[in-house]
Amino acid sequence: MQNDLNIPTHIAIILDGNGRWAKKRGMPRVYGHRKGAYNISNIAQYADEIGIKVMSIYCFSTENWSRPGDEVTYLMKLPIRYFSRYKEKIKNSNIKVIFSGRRDHVSEKLNTLMDEIVELTKDHVGLILNICFDYGSRDELVRAIKNIANDIISNKITISDIDTKLINSYLDTKNLPDVDLLIRTSGEQRISNFLLWQIAYAELYFTDVLWPDFDKIELDKAIISYSNRNRRFGGLKEK
Ligand code: IPE
Ligand code: IPE
Ligand code: MG
């Protein structure tokens, strides 16, 4: 990694292509999911080393429930296996884990484990790893709007308090800065309901590389591309 690069504070990754990666190898789709899950820790570790502050990863969307039952069952069990196996490693790392997404459709076992991982890493000062699981941006916004309405009814806030800062504070990603760089692997060029509010001014980076093959070199390439962008935020700033 060159040291004159502009490192994004918050990167978000739509980790796509696990199924195709497995299929290319004549293996069942879930084989790709397993490989993909283990890749998350490698990339998070590297992101921490190069000074990225926040990494949001899209692991299961609110729309992914519509996949075949056996794939969904596997995807629900995978984080349980993963966290159980890596609990000690996560505890001894620098990474602080948080979760975004619904908690009411996942098993009690997974909920307990998620809470445990958050608690174990809450004082860590390195990369914040925001794991988006059963996450959908529209769902997040609907929940936020309901909570805002409830707080108005119960006189905690008034309508005139509503501004972008207040809306931010009702999102699952409250306390996180906006996304600077959004990466999607596997060649698809769409957002698929990920962090719609938070990516308002993110730079977008699409690569054909499938998620299980996305390594440090690929992250470097994304950051080099980001570093060469001229972010104007609606203004006229020259590079
Ligand atoms: C991304 O890989 C992981 C999840 C959405 C859970 P996919 O499972 O979407 O893989 P492809 O896109 O079918 O190859
Ligand atoms: C987006 O990938 C969701 C996750 C990466 C978790 P999908 O593979 O589900 O998205 P579509 O269906 O191609 O838009
Ligand atoms: Mg996909």
Features of the shown structure:
7 helices, 6-stranded parallel sheet, single chain, binds 3-methylbut-3-enyl trihydrogen diphosphate, alpha/beta, 14% strand
Shape: globular
Strand content: 5-15%
Major sheet details: 6 strands, parallel
> Total number of helical segments?
7
Helix content: 40-55%
Q: What compounds are bound to the protein?
A: 3-methylbut-3-enyl trihydrogen diphosphate, magnesium ion
Task: Describe the strand arrangement of the main beta sheet, using strand numbers.
Answer: 3-4-2-1-5-6
Radius of gyration, whole Å: 18 Å
- SSE order: EHHEHEHEHHEEH
| Strands, total number | 6
Which consecutive residue ranges, at least 5 long each, have pLDDT under 50?
A: none
Q: Could you report the average pLDDT, rounded to the nearest whole number?
A: 97
Q: Which structural class fits the helix and strand makeup?
A: alpha/beta
